Amino acid sequence: MTSTRTIPFRCPHPECGNLQETADRTGLACDKGHVYPYAPGTQIPVFADAPAGSSEYSIVDAAEIHDNALRWLFATFCTDEDTLRENLISRLGLVPGQSLLVTGAGAGNDLPYIAEKMEGRGTIHAQDIASQMLLAGASRHGDALSAIGIDIRFSVCDATQLPYADRVFDAAYHYGGINLFSSVGQGIAEMNRVVKPGGKIVISDEGLAPWLLNSEIGKQLVANNHLYACQAPIALLPETARDVKLSFELHNCFYVIEFSVGDGPLPINIDVPHVGRRGGSIRKRYAGRLEGIDPALKEAVYAEAERVGESRVDFLEKALRAALRT
């Protein structure tokens, strides 16, 4: 599954049209008049930007501060950046020519590793809601990735309201930060929305494995950084998710969720009849329940059904149909 065509930005407002560059070339505008400026000195559209100073990611020198935090992380967990990032990105199963969305891209540390998996051929859209981080990532990696043949696009936007049409990417990736989303469930739903059926989504962030939460090392980690108390948001996956895997990295202190995007309802036949005394099917047992009756009458009905050799559901349906004809 590959895609080499350009993926356009769409207005994140519901029911809006395609975005076009403004007449003065200072941003993008939709058919209904919503305008999104480019970040100064760039052609990176700003759809939504975290207020300056609202977090450690939206302050001056945020990227450099984050670099220091990463050095601490790899030293603390006795690993290195290459090992961890290559491990996580390999789970996407990328091939040359594919299109990938990176949410919460930050300063773009994952982008060179992704480009390597794509062998320099493909499309990457990297977004973050903190312009300070995103613009640093664009400055660090944009020209280098373009030079090797990657179609790289950056945007400052809210990952819970992505500026893309449905089913346009081959895969989506998120490393660190989803714990801080305004709505983790909506962030996952948006990634699921913009990825094609069959496409892979990989999400990872701080979060202790459950068996470590009450351990001494677990308590120390949470005291150092409360995000380690976050649990993997496995319950927030869409019901159509396929091939779901939950694992842990960094000595069981960093959760990783992988799943493939499903297309339509789960292929479960809820009309297969049960064989036995009760009878019926999943659909009948769930949706066909009637009002309560006298317990003694219920037992008498069950006994009569067994006497005549019918399942309870078949016996009741026959009796009810007969009553409706009278």
TrEMBL record:
- Give the keywords, sorted: Methyltransferase, Transferase
GO BP, sorted A to Z: methylation
Task: Write down what this protein is called.
Answer: Methyltransferase domain-containing protein
GO MF entry, a single one:
S-adenosylmethionine-dependent methyltransferase activity
Name the SUPFAM superfamilies on file.
S-adenosyl-L-methionine-dependent methyltransferases
**UniProt cross-references to InterPro entries, sorted A to Z:** Methyltransf_11, SAM-dependent_MTases_sf
Record the organism: Bosea lupini
Please indicate if the UniProt record lists Transferase as a keyword: yes
Q: Which residues form the Methyltransferase type domain?
A: 103-203
